[in-house]
Amino acid sequence: MRRALFHVAGWIAVALGVVGIFLPLLPTVPFMILAAYCFARSSPRLERWLLDHPRFGPHIVAWRESGSISRRGKWAATVTFAISIAATLYWLKMPWMLFPLAAMCASGIWIWTRPEA
């Protein structure tokens, strides 16, 4: 039962990651890292597929080995956060705008404190 739940969660994470390719506000690589984690507990074949993937594999391996994020990934997240902050300031009113602003600022700081791949 537990293995099946990890398997389903892995595929959900892959689906969200694929959606994130087309939606700039949804991160792709973190969902693929989550999918690899789930597949490691449910399907070694699917975990290997993700680790060997030419686009996502290097990011997943770098995260597993050293918790690192590439400089390009950090800048992509920062630009996305800036766009999201602008949208938040435009559409939300006080005090509702404070919650996403705080989350984005905290996430951005955390991302920039990670080592670089």
> What's the end-to-end separation, in Å?
36 Å
- Integer tally of domains: 2
Radius of gyration: 16 Å
* Net shape: globular
The total strand number stands at 0
Instruction: Provide the succession of SSEs.
Output: HHHHHH
Beta-sheet strand percentage? under 5%
Give an overview of the whole structure.
This protein has 117 residues and is mainly alpha-helical. It has 2 domains: 2-66, no CATH class; 71-113, no CATH class. The protein has helices at 2-22, 29-40, 44-51, 57-66, 71-91, 98-113. Helix 5 (71-91) runs antiparallel to helix 6.
Give a brief description.
Helix content is 75%, strand content 0%. 20% of the residues are buried.
Helices, strands, pairings?
Elements: H1 2-22, H2 29-40, H3 44-51, H4 57-66, H5 71-91, H6 98-113
List keywords for this structure.
2 domains, 117 residues, mainly alpha
